[in-house]
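Saturday, quiet lab. Running sequence design on the structure tokens for the scaffold JK sent over.
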């Protein structure tokens, strides 16, 4: 059997290595293609998205679908970078707020259009999903009860766990918890966010049930937004440009809060790493 050719670009959004496929493939092939490309013996990345449309009608038809049909903030930032490199969108004019341009794109895992901006200082800004529910829960890890903030979104679920330090033992316990829990089928992503509040340092785990992928990511855009929600939930205050440090660098989150509604945007930078043809068995 001949190998399939896959045209791709690889990006580095704050260490969260992302591959975007820009050749056309059947959606039934997405998980298989992604699983091979993510391997260290192949292209090697933490996530794979498929560009399904770069046609623009009123800036609403740019479309990105992730391999697990999830939403991903860093992949959205990478897609914006791709569109910017292809001169399909423009940077905002920061000196004149009335000329700021908002680009709307479709991304899997969201029923709404995603508002995005490309800033002249190299940052890409993405509006993040609003939580449907935020509450405090108890998780059992290492035979102990641990308090976590549970944040439910349209297609994914995050737990923010405050910690003073992380350890390999704790990470293994969390992986076991994720693997053995029966999750609702509607959830495309499960995130465990270990957060050192004093140092504003996030260690994110992302689990994709559809592709059976568990990764301790170098950075997480949606997890950064959850930190913004976490802070607003506990302080009852909005925050502007909160810098969340992560293994791969930092991402900035801004959160508006009112009547238990949380509106977050994230800002991050991304660099191009490679582009070319991959061969899939």
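Result came back. Writing it out in full:
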């Amino acid at each position: 059997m001949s190998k399939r050719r896959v045209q791709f670009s690889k990006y580095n959004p704050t260490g969260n290595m992302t591959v975007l496929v820009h050749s056309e493939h059947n959606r039934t092939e997405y998980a298989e293609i992604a699983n091979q490309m993510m391997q260290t013996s192949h292209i090697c990345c933490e996530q794979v998205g498929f560009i399904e449309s770069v046609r623009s009608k009123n800036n609403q038809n740019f479309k990105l679908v992730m391999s697990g049909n999830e939403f991903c903030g860093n992949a959205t930032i990478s897609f914006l970078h791709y569109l910017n490199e292809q001169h399909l969108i423009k940077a905002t004019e920061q000196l004149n707020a009335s000329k700021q341009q908002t680009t709307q794109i479709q991304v899997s895992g969201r029923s709404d259009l995603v508002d995005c901006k490309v800033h002249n200082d190299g940052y890409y800004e993405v509006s993040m999903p609003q939580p449907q529910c935020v509450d405090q829960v108890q998780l059992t890890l290492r035979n102990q009860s641990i308090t976590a903030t549970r944040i439910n979104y349209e297609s994914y679920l995050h737990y923010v766990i405050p910690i003073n330090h992380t350890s390999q033992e704790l990470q293994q316990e969390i992986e076991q918890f994720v693997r053995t829990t029966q999750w609702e089928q509607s959830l495309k992503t499960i995130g465990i966010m270990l957060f050192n509040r004093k140092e504003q340092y996030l260690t994110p785990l992302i689990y994709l049930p559809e592709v059976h992928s568990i990764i301790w990511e170098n950075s997480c855009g949606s997890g950064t937004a959850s930190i913004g929600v976490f802070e607003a939930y506990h302080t009852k205050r909005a925050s502007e440009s909160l810098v969340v440090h992560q293994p791969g660098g930092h991402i900035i989150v801004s959160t508006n809060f009112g009547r238990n509604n949380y509106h977050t945007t994230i800002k991050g930078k991304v660099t191009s790493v490679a582009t070319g043809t991959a061969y899939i068995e």
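Notes for JK: The chain has a mean pLDDT of 91. The radius of gyration is 18 Å. Ask whether to fix the surface positions before the next round.
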